[in-house]
Design goal:
- Among the domains are: 123 residues, no CATH class; 76 residues, no CATH class.
- It has 8 helices and 23 strands.
- Strands 1-2-3-7-8-9-10-15-16-17-18-19-20-21-22-23 form a 16-stranded antiparallel barrel. A two-stranded antiparallel ribbon has the order 5-6. A two-stranded antiparallel ribbon has the order 11-12.
- The longest helix has 24 residues.
- The radius of gyration is 33 Å and the shape is elongated.
- The protein starts with a helix and ends with a strand.
Length: 522
């Protein structure tokens, strides 16, 4: 208790240069010099010599300078805070001083209380957290080819409490990267990264999300509005940010989630599509993957391009290289990329049309159900529309099942299917994982905490919007996924992951990946 009393007194001493909070005592008396012959000088000097007074005010006293009643009261307040160390005569001395400067001490205590309340309000209403991470990624391909990515990332997460139980949250991200074979400490700030089809953003304090969240006034009903990630169904279908709205109900044994909006996401995090390139030797246009090592390619037509008689600059698209598409089909393909890419500008490489539509919208409804302490499940429906499938909507149904085998050991299954069944489609995907200490993201605030998982991932591109997985088995691949996490302290975590499998979209080519990440949280 004595230590708790000391806090507001010390805060008051620290704020003594602000004579604005004068309550119990008169200003003129409080800040007038105490006469040199006042008995308090001798009494306080004796207490100071006994080590019962701390703080910066002692220097003035020890140099025989005059002090004001307020400054003397500060010294007395320090003695009061240490009176449990005083003998009987010293305690009597303190009691007399306390009586003499009663009004001034009351003002100091009042100031201390106000400062404490202000600190408490500030702490409750605003917070700033974040983390730094260093990650290393090595991907191994056919014939011994290797691609590398080294990254340093800083995340700052401010949050503010608002009236009515609402809160504002945001995240600002700075990213540095290098694709050199040994890129350790050679990472450079990432400039001009493309988002939402073609908008360029620099990865320097980039706003990643920002939203308002609060209770709608009824039990368990919440709304979120702004730019946010609606993480549902373990993130398999929807791991992207949206600019929109979310409505949720959290009940006893079940939860419902509805969200709608426009995607706000990096081009590199969505399907890239295939491209059409000119083959000089063959004298024609042929399809090819725009990034041969990227398997995240949605269902698409294998278009050929044939020149018409009028001009080489006005070619016609064709599926067989001979018969041109109809005018309507051609315009649809050219306007949307025509190659399975979510971002039309990254799709068909045609010099004839540049007014492509890069909007991406989603509507979704998910219901979670808890059957027992061991078993829970969820069902979800998603409607997604982008330049992929020539802007025809992708309807996705998904189900999850999570079963607790024994303490700290869970078996999780996820299954999803999409409505696009055209050429080159992969419309059924799933994941099965055995997880120790929860999912692949364990708490970072528990020292010496360990988690691990092993599973099989089949990440079919036509079964998700932006899959939240890919550190081991990448999007558009199938294979074994495993990983482990360990917290060295309550704020330092190491993650190591490994994936080994094959491409779903590029001739079943071999894929292997090693990923590690060290994070420091604050």
């Amino acid at each position: 208790m004595k230590q708790k009393k000391l806090v507001p007194l010390m805060l008051a001493l620290a704020m003594s240069t602000y004579p604005l909070t004068v309550g119990a005592a008169d200003k003129n008396d409080m800040f007038a010099d105490l006469p040199a012959n006042h008995w308090a000088y001798k009494a306080v000097s004796e207490l100071n010599a006994a080590g019962l007074i701390t703080g910066t005010g002692r220097e003035r006293l020890e140099s025989n300078q005059l002090v004001t009643r307020y400054q003397m009261a500060e010294l007395v307040a320090s003695a009061i805070a240490h009176q449990n160390q005083a003998d009987r005569p010293q305690q009597k001395n303190i009691a007399q001083l306390k009586k003499e400067f009663q009004q001034e001490i009351a003002t100091i205590e009042s100031l201390g209380q106000r400062i404490s309340q202000l600190e408490h309000k500030t702490k409750d209403k605003f917070s700033l957290h974040g983390h730094f991470q260093q990650s290393i990624e090595h991907q191994y391909h056919k014939n011994g080819a290797v691609s590398n990515w080294w990254a340093k990332e800083i995340y700052l997460n401010p949050a503010a409490q608002l009236p009515g139980g609402w809160q504002f949250k945001a995240q600002f991200v700075t990213k540095m990267g290098s694709d050199k074979s040994n890129g350790w400490n050679q990472e450079e700030l990432m400039h001009g990264q493309l988002y939402n089809g073609g908008n360029s953003r620099d990865e320097i304090m980039r706003p990643d999300y920002y939203y308002l969240e609060g209770n709608l006034g009824k039990t368990g009903q919440f709304m979120k509005i702004g730019d946010f990630q609606p993480w549902v169904q373990a993130g398999y279908v929807m791991g992207a940010n949206i600019q929109g709205i979310s409505l949720e109900h959290w009940g006893k044994g079940y939860n419902t989630h509805f969200f709608a909006g426009r995607l706000d996401v990096s081009n590199n995090d969505l399907a890239i599509g295939a491209s059409a390139n000119y083959d000089n030797a063959a004298g024609g246009w042929f399809p090819s993957l725009s990034q041969p090592w990227n398997d995240n390619v949605r269902a698409h037509e294998d278009y050929r391009i044939v020149n018409n008689a009028a001009s080489h600059w006005q070619p016609a698209l064709s599926r067989d290289g001979v018969t041109p598409l109809s005018e309507q089909e051609q315009q649809e393909a050219l306007a949307n990329g025509g190659t399975g890419s979510d971002n039309a500008h990254a799709g068909l490489q045609d010099p004839f049309h540049d007014g492509k539509d890069t909007r991406k919208t989603v509507y979704a409804f998910v219901i979670d159900k808890t059957f027992s302490k061991r078993l829970d499940s969820s069902l979800g429906y998603y409607r997604y529309k982008s330049a992929a499938y020539n802007r025809k909507p992708l309807h996705i149904g998904a189900a999850t099942l999570n079963y607790k085998l024994v303490r700290n050991l869970n078996l999780q299954g996820i299954y999803a299917f999409g409505s696009q069944h055209g050429a080159n489609s992969h419309d059924k995907g799933y994941m099965v994982d055995l997880m120790f200490h929860g999912n692949p993201w364990i708490p970072n605030d528990r020292a010496h905490y360990f988690g691990a998982y092993i599973g099989y991932h089949y990440l079919a591109p036509d079964t998700y919007i932006k899959c939240g997985y890919g550190d081991d088995i990448e999007k558009g691949q199938k294979g074994l996924a495993l990983g482990m996490f360990y917290n060295f302290t309550a704020n330092m975590q190491l993650a190591v992951k490994y994936g080994r499998g094959h491409s779903l979209t590029n001739h079943n080519l071999f894929r292997e990946k090693f990923y590690s990440c060290f994070s420091v949280f604050f």
